[in-house]
Amino acid sequence: MGGRLLPRRPGLNGYTEEDDPFSSHRVGYDSRLQTKEPLALKTEHQGPKDAVVLEGYRNDMDNGFEGERPLYNPANTTRPQSSMHLNVNDPIQVHLLVETALGDSREYEILAPEEVDDLKKEIQALSQRIDQTRQNLVIQSKYRDAANSMAKLYSSPDGKKKNGIMHSRTDSVKEADLERIQSEKKCEALANELWSLEKKLMVPQNKLLKHTAGILQMTHKGPKNAPKGTTAQTGGIPGSPESIYTYHNARTSVEPISDEIVFDERSYYRTADRLDAFSDFSGRDSFGPPPKSQAREQMQMIAKTEQTLESLNKRLRDVIVKANPRRERTYSLPPLAKTNAQGRSTGPGETLQNHLEYMERSIQTIDQEHGLAAKYQQESERVAEERIEELNREVRGLLLPYDPYHPEPPVLTGTGLNQQLLYFQDSIGAVEMELSSAVKKGNKVTDGAEMEKMIMGLWDIILSGEQDIRRRKQERRVARATQGLSPDEDDSPDDSPDLVESFSLQAFSTKVQMLYTQATRLKDQKKVLQRQIKQQRELNSKSDATKDAEMQAKVEELERVKDLLTRTEADADRTREAHSKAIEELEGLQSSGASAAEHEAATQKIRYLEDQLQELQDDHKITSAEIQSQVAESETKIAGLTVQLKAAETAIKDKEQEVDRVKVEVARLQTEVTLARAELDGAYGSRAERAAEAAAMSPVATEQVQTLKKELEETITEYEAMTKASIEWEKERDKMEEAIDKLRDEKENLETQLNEEKVRCMGMKSPSTETPGNTSTSTMVLRNEFKKMMRDTRAENTKALRAEQAERRKLEDELRALKRLHGPGKSGLSQSVRTPS
């Protein structure tokens, strides 16, 4: 099986490589030995001794159960977590591995989905218990090391020769030895418990791994079509590397899955109604209703989509409730489809929109929780940095009498804990050096008065440092109260009294252990905060880049429309001026009785101007089509904003209903508290205990009300922003309609002038060509030209309409993509992560 069966990241099985029972750093392997030979495992009735188990975990406790590095093969880009000796480009090697895996997993048991879920839940529960036990073991080992150090200090060779003061501290020496023994026993008990849990974890993990291998072996598919003229190979092994991709699966209980029954995931992003009356789901033009078989397939696809969305919504609700258990009762259930006795949907498509709205609302809820988590992380990081800075000042106060040139702690930056932790580690090293030198001096001095004086000095420095910390906390509380801010939890008064505590070696040891515990806990908090901040920054960078690109595209599109309108108006003005000049020249020629040649030249010029006017009309039509496309796009955006507005109103109604339910719950709790108080007045228990229990229920309800009020305010703010955006789009639409009306009026005026000019030309009679035949010929030519112009106009209109429809489909697809990426009301919530409840 190898030393590494699972990757070092959470997978579908719910555990990581650190929980791998087959890894080389688990119990059952001595991590101190290079050979890593397995220790003798005991049976359930006769397990290993506690001391042996604890010794096996020694290296794991020293490195914080970090485990070994996973395998990494840079040559394998598709799966880098593989051995360096594996060559994925070698077909023979890959074929042998596949055949070996299929043969080894042939007899493995295959479980039902319910059994797999039970195994995963059991593995998750055991993994959580194992992680908690590991943390407790690491902390208890630190206590044990501190107790051993104090016991060595008491049992020094020179200390036994002292009399007087040191003779009266025999009880303290006994207490230190007793504490050391108790710490050893606790460590051994935790190590034995961890060993038992890991042993239990091996059983469900082994079953789940065998089930996974068995189901993959059973559903492994060979080639779809065997080559003609080939015979079955012996044992299912191909005869050459080229025939690797032509073998068949020996386990024929499952046929290869056909592409026809695979669920089309693209249906997730289709709406129930057709977006265009001229196209069906396949994108091909059709006229008339679809056939019955196609309609039935579409209804089946819609029903499957509803079932998939219902399952996804249930999983989303489970994620929300798991992250915040307080939403178990308040968060609504996903909509359910109506089914018949056979479990089939009776009305496909009825709950599709409700499922999409529920999914959108769930994503918004997750984003809100993420925002609260980000604020909590920033505040926790700031408080942790202040706390470490206080500890650094306290440790510096300890070192100043012995090292006057010890540097000052780093200033608070609010960006991280690295500098403070490095300073704290250096200070701890200096303290250890000072303690070592003090122990050496104490061994050389015959009188114990100097050692006692030194420890008393350290004790006074610790007490003065604690008083200084309490004084600074009081100043911060006063400053926050002056600014009108809520009091900080870390600035609250300490549980320890302000009275000066009497000195004793036991008290001094407790103080040192407390400082070390605080440093260890803050270091763990630093790792968690760094990981969460990195995830939040990646989220923010993706969201900001998408929004900036979308805004830039909209601005460029608006500028292009404005330039197009300006050019069209300028061309129309130039054409009107040229037409006016031609009419004036024609009237001058008629009034002065010009010759037939001049009249013919004027007629040709008029035709030339008519051609230019026709070209201008064509350009004007194209421009009108583009403007209509822009108006349709604006209408589409307005419709999208309207849908988002309705979703926001629905969310506000849900929040109001949730607030009402919370109010009713608060009233019910108050009534229950009143009744309970009345019943407990004559029953057992003190009044102080009853008051404490009643007070513990009120803050929970108040906190829920405050949280709901905050969510309602955020929803109202988003609703106002969407309303403003809708009004702006409406104004822009009005401007576009005014521009279209203006261009339409100009077009009609130009057509009227052109018709008048044509009639005027038809009424003119030349002296040399005044015959009835020529008049009828001119009329026929004009009629043919008019028919040709109408045909061209219809063709252009049809082409513009098709272009507009294609553009509208493209914009609708982009709008759906934007909805899936962002959704309504995510302007300020995409930068957040969930708060731990």
Automatic annotation (TrEMBL):
Residues 94-219 form the Up-regulated during septation protein domain. InterPro entries: DUF7801, MukB/SMC, Uds1. It comes from the Eukaryota. Transmembrane segments: none annotated. Residues 828-837 have a biased composition (Polar residues). Residues 1-31, 219-241, 478-499, 817-837 are annotated as: Disordered. One of its GO terms (molecular function) is DNA binding. It holds the Pfam family DUF7801. Residues 487-498 have a biased composition (Acidic residues). GO terms for cellular component: cytoplasm. Residues 173-200, 295-322, 512-760 form a coiled coil. Residues 646-700, 701-763 form the DUF7801 domain. The keyword DNA-binding applies. Keywords: Coiled coil, Cytoplasm, DNA-binding. This is Uncharacterized protein. The lineage of its organism: Eukaryota, Fungi, Dikarya, Ascomycota, Pezizomycotina.
